[in-house]
Amino acid sequence: MSDLLIKAEHVSKKFCRSLKRSLWYGVKDVAHSLNPWSRSREMDGDGSLRANVDLRQDEFWALQDINFEVRRGECLGLIGHNGAGKSTLLKILNNLIRPDSGRITMRGRVGAMIELGAGFNPVLSGRENIYNQAALLGFETKEIKKKFDAIVDFSELEQFLDMPLQNYSSGMRVKLGFAVASQMEPDILLLDEILAVGDVGFRFKCLNVMGELQRKTAMIFVSHSMTQVHRICQKVILLSGGCVTYSGFDVAVAVRSYMGLVKTTQGIVVGSGEAEIVDLKIQTVCGTCGFGKTVDAEFGGWLRVTARIRIQTKQYPVLRMEFLLWNEDMMPVMELMAKDLLGYAFDLPDSDEIEITAFVARSELNAGRYSLSALITDESHTNVLCNYVNAAYLRVNADGPSGAHILSVAKWNIETKSREHHVVESSEEIDANS
Amino acid sequence: MSNTHLLSSTNNNPVADVLQERIITPHDGLDAFSDAIRSVVRDWPFTRALAWRMFLRDVRATYRQSFLGYLWLLLPALANTMVWVFLNGANVVNIDSGDVPYPLFVFTGTVLWTAFNGSLVGAMGIVEEARGTLAKVNFPHESLVLAGFGKSLLNTAATAIFVIPFLLLYHVEFRTTMLLFPLGILATMLCGTALGLIVVPFTALFSDFGRAIHLGLRFGFFITPVIFPVPQSGWAYRVMIVNPATSLFVTSRSWLVGGEPPMYVAFSVVTISSLVLLLVAIVTLKVSLPHIIYRISG
Q: Above 0.85 for ipTM, yes or no?
């Protein structure tokens, strides 16, 4: 069992809504903390001090009774909506602010990647800022000199080093900041949504660095990108309104709960308007739903989408229709198409309204909430006659801890090999139609 | 409590390394004070190196964007002196500086006032200046105090160096006490820093405190013997004697150019009190900053 590096017990923190009152409470807190004989504290059962357990006027709990542990080699994901208290918790862990009650034990050197550009001076060059930033993060001067080339290499900004920082784009600044911070060798690493900016290549590099660091550190990772959370974290805490609503090793469940807190958005219709979707329904094993509503579905079950449409133009002889399913990260995860992998083609109808149905015998979508959009275009997909986004919702229930969008049940085979054979005989079959 | 940088940095054998443990609680009172003092001592090498970096960074950044650059350090003091010399010469004001030629008297006073005012205002402003970094990076905050002191020292030194041409101009004979003048400047800066720092926990939260002090300083200029010597009697005399800066100014100036007799006792008392006050102020700052950071940036 690797060593326990972070332990948080009953951590709470209050926040005041009104600025003036908050500043006044600040004055009172400062005065209280400066009184060497302040004895108005109560002691908790476990010996940690409890302070200010009552809420004063305009105050609410930004964090309430947070408990968790992280060991070396583990990464704890901290997810929740904006304002749930994640950054506050990270600031307390980073020793920037004090909790109002509770106790946190941190063992080892603490490194934080919270805002990579803090401490950057825009007038000075990239080179000078590397020295400043490294010094701020705790490197000694000779350490910085030794690591300087590695930092510049990683940042890919060698030709811009002597340019003043105000001329760097925000992505470049993140690259520089991360390049410096990645040279830290901490025992505990705190990461706060630092990869929101930066090109894909760089983000990939960063995830690799974090993967390397993960083996030697206890990490806490705050992010809104569920893909990254799935990739890096073994355990996760879901914060909602300052309270822990999920804490455990099932990252997929936590992510789904987080997504589940999102309210459904209204349907939007875009396109030229030459076609109109009058009615739409989704049918599954579990039931049916209409416009704007949600229907449950099972993994592996069938799916039928029916749309009643009205074409108001005679311009196009052939039209195409397709349905898309989007996940909560707004990524298109599945598209219902015809055999030619283009939208279902149909001739311009004579009558007013027609009904088009798409049937999928076995849906391999993993658990989650998906929104359906219906798209009508001309034959070449150039003109969009109607695109109804968020037309209806599908909630798939599946057991299983996977975070992937699509689950495929494959056919597996195992063979024992003796050591004398060097030629690998491959005899696995994958049945694509199973 | 802050990071220790004296830990072995090899993570190859983590079990063998003894890991420093940091416990974070809402602790206040004596706990907080003793923690603060311990961390100041423990982090000193790092604090010093960081303060030097911050100092270099801020000075370079300020003067990189200007053409005259570092010349701007000197010009305000010269300009100030010229105003008072003119006013006195034109008999708009009538100041008797005794044996000391008036321009020299004023320039010396201005140098000392730059030292005092500069360090006081500089110390008051450290939280506002570092607002962004304070809420994001964990570093020993006393480095801000040290860097601020360094910047004030630079400003003062740039001005003070021109005392030499003034002395030569007025054919002032060399005397050994002149070598004590830098000590006088340091004592003045110590006093200014201590006074500026002790109010920071409150000025950082409500701007009223800071504004009131700035206003007070304008008035303070005239109850300190900067441009005129301490009067012999009257209410002005009583006020000036109470002002701690008075003894520092009078003593330093007398070391440099003679004139009024030095006030050794008061000088020593003020200097030692300033030192004590500074240490108290640093510890106070460390204890109160987490609360301030939370309120000004959440």
A: no
Considering the domain delimited by A4-109+185-260, tell me its CATH architecture: 3-Layer(aba) Sandwich (3.40)
How much is the pTM?
0.80
The pLDDT tens digits for A9-26 are 999 998 888 888 888 888
What does the alpha-carbon distance between residue B231 and residue B77 come to, in Å, rounded to a whole number?
24
Q: Provide the chain A residues 371-400 that lie in CB contact (below 8 A) with chain B.
A: none
DSSP codes joined into one string, A161-190: TTSBGGGS-HHHHHHHHHHHHTT---SEEE
Domain boundaries along the sequence of chain B = 29-297
| DSSP strand pairing (A275-284 vs A288-289) | antiparallel
pLDDT beyond 60 at B7: no
* Ranges in chain A annotated CATH 3.40.50.300: 4-109+185-260
Helix (H) or strand (E) holding B167: helix B163-169
CA A94 – CA A334 distance, rounded (Å): 42
Taking a C-beta distance cutoff of 8 angstroms, is the pair B163, B256 a contact? yes
Residue of B56, B200, B280, B294 to mutate, interface with A, max A Cβ within 10 Å: B294
Give yes or no for A110 touching B (CB within 8 A): yes
Measure the CA–CA gap between A181 and A191, rounded to whole angstroms.
Answer: 11
Intervals of CATH 2.70.50.60 along chain A: 268-397
φ, ψ (nearest 5 deg) of residue A307: -130, 135
Residues 6+ apart with CB under 8 A from B160: B111, B115, B181, B182, B185
Average pLDDT over residues A169-176: 86
B156 Cα to chain A: minimum distance (Å): 24
Alpha-carbon dihedral sign for residues A51, A53, A58, A60? positive
Give how far B61 is from chain A: nearest CA, Å.
Answer: 6
Q: A60-64, A163-167, A302-306, A416-420: lowest mean pLDDT where?
A: A416-420
Query: Domain A268-397 - what CATH class?
Result: mainly beta
Measured in whole angstroms, the distance separating CA B8 from the mean position of its chain's CA atoms is 36
Q: Helix, strand or coil for residue A103? A: strand
